[in-house]
Fold each of these.
Amino acid sequence: MGTIRHCVVPAAGLGTRFLPATKVLPKEMLPVVDRPVIEWAIEEAMAAGALEMVLVIATGKELIQAHFERQPELEKVLEARGKKAELAAVRHSQDMAHIRYVLQEKPLGLGHAVLCAADVVGDNPFLCMLPDDLSHAEPPVLAQLRKAWDGVQSTVLALMRVSGDEISRYGCATVSESRGRLHRITGVVEKPKPEEAQSDLAIMGRYVLSPGIFDALRRTPAGEGGEIQLTDGIATLLGAGEEVWGLEFEGELLDVGTLDGWLTTNVRLAHELGRAPALRGALG
Ligand code: UTP
């Protein structure tokens, strides 16, 4: 097994929870304060030491690619007008990372999207993150997971405690031994019924995955809705005898994949970053 180089970002989903805004515009291109969601994700991956980004996209999501390409005409205009800060921002997005794109031809689920990155990642462990949540933590959530990986050298998932019936909206982890906030995972179930949930530990969209996940996903049958679930792939990995750990990360993940979450996160971050002074008055 090699070393971590890649961060895989599955971004081929349909974004049905955010229609009609996402009918044409990929949800990853919606702005949070001054930049699209996908830029926040890449910043977090870079902070966790990713050397190469692997964005899994679908047909119709080419705007994501365009955002990270050079826009010479725009640069020329900004240069001529002396708009230095704007020019730096435009150049930053094209220089911020080495990005490869992989096409998921059909929306066959998160597990299938991860599997689409297998050839690029090869036999190496890798970072993986869902851009639907923004890290609001120091160090960022993915960097916390990477540090935990350095200790255990096996798959690490992000865990968050949730209350009551909420666990039914997430993958749920059963754990045994604990080292502080790091727990050894013995079982995972996608969206359990509240009465069947074995714990209050929800699996969140940040992972360090061993390359064994690719074989596990190939052997994982499609579940609900014909989709291959990443959680089911992790269950297959556990069944094959691989160690899986879960880190109760510090800080928060802020939802930007639903209208409610996106609005709340925008208002909160704009306020915290001092980017919308008028909000102070408007919100009382
Ligand atoms: P979601 O479950 O949020 O699905 O996917 P979605 O299609 O993006 O959005 P909704 O639920 O319809 O509103 C979780 C993550 O997995 C990716 C998504 O892009 C998102 O990052 N995904 C999901 C894929 O890349 N391919 C898929 O087939 C499904």
Amino acid sequence: MENTSEMQLLERRLDAWVAASRPYTSGGKVASYIPELSKAPKDALGITILAADGKAASSGDSELRFTLQSISKVFTLILALMDNGEAAVFAKVGMEPTGDNFNSMLKLELVQPGIPFNPLINAGAITVSSLIRGSSPAEKSARILQFFRRLAGNSRLAYDTGVYLSESETGDLNRSMAYLLRDHGVLEGKVDEVLDVYFRHCSIQVDCADLARMALVLACGGVDPLTGETLIPRRCVQIAKTFMTTCGMYNASGEFAIQVGLPAKSGVSGGVLAIVPGRLGIGVVGPALNAKGNSCAGVHLLETISKEMSWSMF
Ligand code: GLN
């Protein structure tokens, strides 16, 4: 389908789809293990869809600001691959889904070698954060923020300091994971410094339009179609999209592939980034989460649109 008519169709139907999905917010809970996240509006739902020609369709609470959380893991993985190359990254982190929760430590000891199963679970993403180049944690974090700003085409992207502090103060599970990884020789450097880099990139604040623009760069093979600039090597995008498909929705990735059929990544703030390869970037937010930590209404909305528009890749 040609983009203009597809976007016109989306513009016509998006409000009705958001209205039909919004009731699903009541079936979920806003994350509270990072106390600051519990302040998010439970019944919010918003979406922005951005096409390669710059046309966008938005509906609902698309201007709500939220933190990237686990969505940031896709982009720190890409930066780590660009900094170190594939061999060095995959010496420290695997390529397989776990079937466990995103913050599970179970398989770190159970299955050898004791490296995290993939870069999108917390243990893997913390390891990836340790691989970002920079002479200090501040420099690493600044490089990440700068990279994310370019991907979002938004020089104003910044940390949500409240969420960052809230997670730093309460992130003992992640801290214990990092100590285990360090003892195993997987994670190098000081645990507190690595976690500071990790907590900071999780706390970068966006809205649906920012997320859609970051998604569009992935959809277009690493080129920002709005500027023509290549921001990511094609191979790194290919790796990231593959992980999004196999592990992006945690241990609901199989179900999401069947019901929606698009590469995607969710975060505990209720954000979901999804791509229609070659064509569209999508940013969704709906803070009420299902039992597996994905946005209840956000997943329902993506399922509806993908089915209506026949977007599944499979
Ligand atoms: N910062 C969050 C954490 O480490 C990210 C997890 C997520 O979004 N699933 O717990």
